[in-house]
Amino acid sequence: MIELENLIQINTEQHEMSPFFVGDSLVFVKFEQQSRKDKPKRGEQKFDLYKSVRVGDDFSETTLLDDRINSEYVEGPGVYDEIAGIIYFTRSRRIEDKKRKERKVNHLGIYASQKRDGGWSEPAPLPFLLDDFNFCHPSLMDEGRRMIFASDMPGGFGKMDLYESRYFNGEWSKPLNLGARINTSENEIFPTAYLDMLFYSHDTEGQLDIYGANMTNNNDPEALPVPINSDHDDFSLIIDEEEKTGFISSNRPGGAGTDDLYRLSFPLDFFHKNPYAKTINVLVLDKLSLQPIENAEISLTNINLTDDQLMDMLSSDIMISDQDELVLTLKTPEEDLAYLPVAGEGSVFVEVDNRKLYLVKTKAKDYDPNTTILRMSDDLTEYTVLLSPKVQSPIEVLPPPPTIIQNDIEISLSEGTTLVFDNIYYNYNSAEIKSGAAQELDVLAQVMLENLSLRVRLSSHTDARGNAAYNQTLSEKRALSAKKYLMQKGIASSRMQTVGYGETQIRNQCKEGIKCTAEEHAYNRRTEVTVIE
Predict the structure, then answer these.
(1) Between the CA of residue 419 and those of 11, 235, 477, what are the distances in Å?
(2) I want to staple 287 with a disulfide (CB 3.0 to 4.6 A). Which of 63, 67, 386, 469 is the partner?
(3) Residues in a beta bridge with 410
(4) How far apart (Å, rounded) are the C-alpha atoms in residues 9 and 390?
(5) How far apart are CA 288 and CA 373, in angstroms?
(6) Cβ-contact 129, 109 below 8 angstroms
(7) Mean pLDDT throughout 95-103?
């Protein structure tokens, strides 16, 4: 069931229309009547962009968006690219009349402005604008790489048609008409997008009605039902998936003034039923026993990467493993991931899109985390993640191992023995070992040079201060730095393994959120050496 309410916190007796989201704000077009002579119509001057901050179901006092965005002419409908931090909006521009050079005319154009330090950069027109025609009402699809807009440029089917431009290699392409499936001999204007659905208003005998078209199939667009459409002008539908709500503009009776903003509540699948959506079962198992892991957590994040973006995600620490394999580490910000709990039987059902690529991160207590990229396919219904148990020191009591003591530093040669090196000092927030601050590694190097069969694992740990993902990466780099230090001392790479544990193995009470002294935090920063053989 669809419910509709007038936004009385925002609407006035003037025009409020064409909303879009910018962070926590609802931005919209507003007309302020300055005198009785002002009788606004869409396309006239004095329209500006205003904003109101959303606080739950309420809205703050309405204010102008920004002096750089608003000018002395018309500012109209727009859209905000959250990823790039760019606002695209409609603005009138003064163009010289080619027939009468002393006269200038107004045409609508699409402008872009970058968000900077709480403000906006100087707006710039998009490159595909033509002087003698209107370009307006931008909307974005495909994560900001596809812009749909309205224009009366030549080659269309009617008065105003919908066109698209693709963002490729840092530039917007030449516009292409969306074709006869969308466009008619009348006006198609006010496009907005939600996932693979395009909404727009079609002009029927002077009345605007909102239509919806799925851009992944060839089905004909359909007019949306009552109460979204009425016997009056209805346009500029936007959808907020998280809040399960939407907003439209309408001049229907019962509002505060002329064009008003209305809020919609509806079931999400009313607007969009993804034909590629499906559910898969993800199993999380112990790599050694193949038994389900209790209390595991998993995160699936849709990724749509260019080659450059993929390389940016790969760690700069690219090395060759002991088995001559190329080892690449995916860098993913932990705080951006939402983990799902895995049931006791080691499985969880997740909804995915059959066309897409997913970054899969899995973690569990006492297991090394796992990161992989999963490509969906038609026949994939179940996916298994294998987690490796963390390497732990033997718990049985062994006879005292043979040891070597140099410079008061004791090095045990017994397999499985773990040595804790607390005195390897690194530059702050760096993996670089301070000059002359690796005496323990110097002793280890000497022992390994004298015992050529000795192989070790270098494990690095951080304290719990700072970001967990950053600490994990830092520990991995510090373990690699220790390895490189030993290689410079003549130790073969094949005799050393490295692992970073970040802040996952704190030795005292100083976990995240607990206040500790600098010395207590320092106790957790160490490099451990485990004798493999």
Answers:
(1) 69, 69, 19
(2) 386
(3) 405
(4) 56
(5) 22
(6) yes
(7) 65
DSSP for 26-37 reads EEEEEE---STT
What is the number of residues in the chain?
A: 533
Residue 206: partners with Cβ closer than 8 Å, 6 or more residues away? none
Q: Is 396 left (phi over 0), alpha (psi -120 to 50) or beta?
A: beta
Q: Would you say residue 407 has pLDDT above 50?
A: no
Enclosing H/E stretch for 264: strand 260-265
- Locate tokens 């904003």: which residue? 51
Residue 476: CA count within 13 A, CB half-sphere: 17
What is the spatial distance between Cα 207 and Cα 214, in angstroms, rounded to a whole number? 23
- Which residues make beta-bridge pairs with 27? 20, 51
Cβ proximity of 479 and 502 under 8 Å: no
Section 279-291 average pLDDT? 84
Give me the DSSP letters along 209-253: EEEEEETTS-PPPEE--TTTS-SS-EEEEEEETTTTEEEEEE--T
Smallest Cα–Cα separation from 393: which of 421, 420, 360, 368? 420
Structure tokens at 251: 């001049």
Percentage of the residues of the chain whose pLDDT score is greater than 70: 76
| Sole residue written with tokens 């002329």 | 258
Read off the pLDDT of residues 134-177 as tens digits, 9 standing for 90 and up: 999 999 998 888 999 999 999 999 899 999 999 988 899 999 99
pTM of the model: 0.54
| Residue 175, phi then psi, degrees to nearest 5 | -65, 145
Q: How many CB atoms lie within 10 A of CB 348?
A: 18
The answer to whether 512 and 503 have CB atoms below 8 angstroms apart is: yes
Residues 6+ apart with CB under 8 A from 355: 276, 376
Residue 467's contacts (CB-CB under 8 Å, 6 or more residues apart) are 334, 335
- 121: helix, coil or strand? coil
Do 78 and 49 meet the contact criterion of CB atoms below 8 Å apart?
yes
User: Helix axis angle, 468-488 relative to 439-450, nearest 10°?
Assistant: 50
Tell me, what's the pLDDT at 112? 96
Within 8 A by CB and 6+ apart from 143, the residues are 83, 304
The most distant pair of C-alpha atoms in the chain lies apart, rounded to whole Å, by 102
Supply 339's token pair.
């983990």
The H or E element containing residue 114 is strand 104-116
Could you give the CA distance from residue 432 to residue 42 in angstroms, rounded to a whole number?
62
Strand, helix or coil for residue 117: coil
pLDDT value, residue 483: 85
Using only C-alpha atoms, the chain has a radius of gyration, in whole angstroms, of 31
The rounded Cα 109 to chain-centroid distance in angstroms is 29
Which residue type occupies 100? R
